[in-house]
Amino acid sequence: MTHDVDVVIVGGGPVGTTALALCGRAGLRAIAFEKDVRLWPTARAVHFDGETMRTLQGLGVAERFQHVTIPMRNVAILNEAGEVLVHAPTDRIGEQGWNDHISFHQPDIEQLLREVVAETPGIELRCGETVTDVETTDDGVVVTSSDAAGEVRTTRARWAIVADGARSEIRHRLGIESDKYGEDTPWLVVDGQLVDAPGYEADMIQFGRHTRPALWLRLPRHRVRMEFMLMPDDDPAEIVTPAAVERISRGALPADKFTPDRQAIYTFRGRIARQWRRGNIFLAGDAAHQAPPLFGQGLCAGIRDAANLVWKLDLVARGVADESLLDTYESERKPHATFWVETAANQAVIIQTTDPQVAHGRDEYIRANPGASAVPEPPALGPGLHAGQDRGGRLGPQPILADGIRLDDMVGSHFLVAAERAVYDDLAPALRAALDDDGDVVTLLDPAKVSALLATIGARAAVLRPDHYILGTAGTAAELERLLLQVPSLTGTADLTAESR
């Protein structure tokens, strides 16, 4: 089959447009279809982490995103009486070279992503065009779409990334079911502008109020968000009125100071699709997983999907890697995403209790164990292209070097080999020569560039993947050789390495 493009992306939200931009950066020809003509005007996601900012940095636009985001300074958990059970400062640069917690107004983020897409050659975002079918074939996919005038088009591609949201029509058409995590609970979300009113001091608060659990987030400029769990006797029509919002916010959102942009009832739910790949079709973002928003990992997980998948598509498209590399997308990402869905669902149980005695027991436990409610350490990837030992499969750090340069700005979207000179010098000559000639690998040996990275990882040498996850660590040249032979562009050097010894 002749392919019109390498990749078709279904959905032009933040996950789909990020995937599209990553395709463009990699040199893949790609088209994304978005059914809405105009940008969605109200917020949905409001938080991402340092890893997400690092992905945006790789697109060359992190500084532009800094102008429309703010770092979270602190997070807290309060109980019914207003007692601060947990208060944690978060305004610091983390291991990723960016703040660990960042707030934003989603339309600002989506507009910038679309600007990136418009500036990148080889890719296109088609708005107002709905994908009605995606069919996988032996050597690609056939995508059927229609525009507002009813004109039907067929696009042939090698692969499709389905990022059309939680209600994914394509996932349903493929017959892929999802597993449920936790209980589905209706909440009211209220976004808007709070002017001349203090709100709450902390930037993010989980209110463990047994009379009505709630969340608070401070966003850029005068924007804030509050979310309230619906109670059995709530009137859906009355609960969204300004007077009701002022009442259930306990005066934090006074009707004369707060101008809402959005007031909507939605459901906290945890879901994981049972399959993330069907032939040449891959699910990503909310089409593959949905989590309650307690740790703000929903959009982060979708961006991770895109970052994990696109570099693999690129290697396969160029013939550097075998098609089997694409099997590692689901095996790596699904357990990682499931961890965050389960963790958020468990936290929802803790925060959402409406039983006063259970809430009292929870408060006592948190007082005695304040660290138990902290944001957990991110997990390793599931089985895939990594060593699975030490820090293999975990997210690698990004030091900021003495001259202020972030490490990724030197490495780009390549594999990184960071090593002490003595370990590198003991490699087989043929392997050193292959590293020098390999356009998919950057080798750094200068202590000024790699010392902080290796010290954080705790190794004399390490190999990092284009998505910044650690392929593996090494303490000797022999261990480093074994890692290097897992890099797709270097797998053919095994015989040369043996001969040179």
Automatic annotation (TrEMBL):
What Gene3D superfamilies does this protein's entry cite?
Answer: 3.30.70.2450, FAD/NAD(P)-binding domain
FAD-binding domain: residues covered: 4-342
Its keywords, alphabetically, are:
Oxidoreductase
* Matching InterPro entries: FAD-bd (IPR002938), FAD/NAD-bd_sf (IPR036188), PheA/TfdB_FAD_monoxygenase (IPR050631)
List the SUPFAM superfamilies hit by this protein, alphabetically: FAD/NAD(P)-binding domain
Name of the protein this chain belongs to:
Bifunctional 3-(3-hydroxy-phenyl)propionate/3-hydroxycinnamic acid hydroxylase
